[in-house]
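INFO  loader      accepted 1 record
INFO  loader      residues=197
INFO  predictor   begin
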Amino acid sequence: MPTTPATVTHNSSNGTAEAIMLELVDESGTTIGTAEKLAAHQAPGQLHRAFSVFLFDEQGRLLLQRRALGKYHSPGVWSNTCCGHPYPGEAPFAAAARRTYEELGVSPSLLAAAGTVRYNHPDPASGLVEQEFNHLFVGMVQEQVRPDAEEVGETAFVTAAELAERHAAAPFSVWFMTVLDAARPAIRELTGPSAGW
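INFO  predictor   done
INFO  writer      dumping tokens
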């Protein structure tokens, strides 16, 4: 039986811990309310706004991250460059750029919207559920990555062929293939056909 993690909090500028709130949405992506982050992920899950970022180097390789072991959700698994949730009222584009910098210490270049995807993915390991209306972004990374060890356990740049090998051999986040497949048209436009995405 999975254990239930404690409420997710962050420290505000005045040093007090505040619960992290997410934006709840309807099936068309219209905001309908808010919920505390962990509550939104408890089965059966509440549909909420999220984002996923895919950054590539100049060789057309995708930057992956392995989520830190201390994460309450999907610890130690590989996933896309960055993913997360906008704060209520925060634009998804701004949230994607903010969180990429917080987790990886880089500011994306040429970051562009790549559509949205809606999914429902239970995570068998934690018992949590990803009911998300996910805004996708693709872009370039032209700086050295400086990961926050509390968020990111490891990073790797991979070709499309190397990703296929890794995905067959190691655990990835339950949402990874869904968001990758949805972002592929924009990825191909960014990286060109020779990159193989």
